[in-house]
Amino acid sequence: MPRNYRNGRSACDASFCPDAEPLYTWAPKAGVCGIPPGQPNEGASLTAVTYRTPDKEQCSSSYMDQTVSVDVSPRGSVSSNLFTVVKLDVTVGGVAEADEETAGAFVPYEADTNGTLSVRGIAALKPVAIECSPDDLPDSETVTVAAPAESLFEKIGDQYVPAQSEYKACEIGDKQFFLHGHAASGALRDLKVEVTHANCGAKDKAKFTVIKIVSIEPDPSAFIENYYQGSPLDSPANRVYTIPVSPSVIGNGTDPAGFVWPLHVNVRAVVEPAVPENELPESCGLVGGLNIPPNKLLHWVDLRAPKKDVFTFLNCGVDSGLKTTVYVFDARIKPFVDEGDRCIINVGHSWGQYWLNDPSLALIGSPAYLLVSRDVGFFPAPGDWTNKIWGDGVIRLDGAAGSDDHPITGHGNYRAVSFKKFRQALHLVYAKLPPNSPHYGLFDYNCTDFAIDLGLWVDVTTMSPSGTSTPWDFSDWLRVCPGL
Q1: Residue 263 in this model has a pLDDT that exceeds 60
Q2: For residues 448 and 468, what is the distance between their CA atoms, to the nearest angstrom?
Q3: Residues whose CB falls within 8 Å of the CB of residue 279, separated by 6 or more in sequence, listed in order
Q4: DSSP H or E segment with residue 80
Q5: What is the pLDDT of the chain when averaged over all its residues?
Q6: pLDDT attached to residue 300
Q7: Angle at 203 between CA 198 and CA 204, to 5 degrees
Q8: Which residues have CB under 8 Å from 424's CB, separation 6+?
Q9: Measured between alpha carbons, how far is 166 from 159 in angstroms, rounded to an integer?
């Protein structure tokens, strides 16, 4: 809280004693004080000048309430004068006086307002208190206010208007000021609000940092996907990621290539400027997922079970407006087969099912989500077939329709690791429902070929589709390679 002194007129005017005018306190140095023009012994040097003042650590309680006395030797004359000790104090966001230039205040970023504030901009404002003591200074005494352009606002009634650069000293304490962070800082504590008493030079300043949350992103992973990437819906304000559940829970924990799956993935907040976590205030930090304090910029997503985690960021107690959703999904392709009776040339039937856990089901979209966890089978369409081996085909759903009431002699259970392809496959199958079903060929595209394709469409390779595929071959293959 720097202080300075506002003098009245004196027989030993300070203008003639430059060494007796320090910046913040009245503590004159020993020296020579000249006699002003028009006074007896004009121009003579006075070698012994003694100043007597009250406690220099306190500001005045009212205008001109303090006295300075000057004893001049060898003449023995005594002069006195009234003066005012002026104190200025600026506080941002309630930061204590001892911290206002070391730790400083933190202000949340909100987009440039061009002199006007949105609803979000108003919610992100940080209060600024400016006090000038004593509060009964004359109207002629003013305080100048300096802050970054378009950052400081004054609230008048229910309106926020850009603050002025100068106010009456006796009125500034009654004003309501607020800081708006419309541009991110380039470094910690690189911005300040500074106030100056125009006449005596008393000053105070409070430093602050505007924090911008750039993104909330999971660490890169072999199988994590940005669901909306390339879409107009993809933005830091609404980012969606999908990652498969760790197979250590539903399998052996290792894929065929020997890749060991993690049990969690990190989600990080990127801020500007780069602020060490230990310097961020308690009102800043990620929200969502798993956290081990004191982490403020890093949380975890548990991959051991299907789930949906939503991450946001509280920026100085205000929602940053960014949201990242991570879906941990468990998607399967489940082929089924009735091998039939090879002795009596009963060819049997092959079909399949796309299975998905509930949390990520909403991402599939309508109407294809209606196919999830339903039997899907391919059959020759009813009617007169040419040679009974080629003709129209029909895709059927559910129970008797999808499996044609065939018993299950073989089945598989395989994980799909790309959610995008899983979704595309469901929409592809839906598009092939009658009347758009493909042609059926007993020797080149039959029910088993279709069941194999259900896997290929989600990057799951089962039995080779080359040659003529039969349910009994598929049943043999599934016994050897059942999947999970």
Answers
A1: yes
A2: 9
A3: 103, 188
A4: strand 77-92
A5: 82
A6: 94
A7: 140
A8: 457
A9: 19
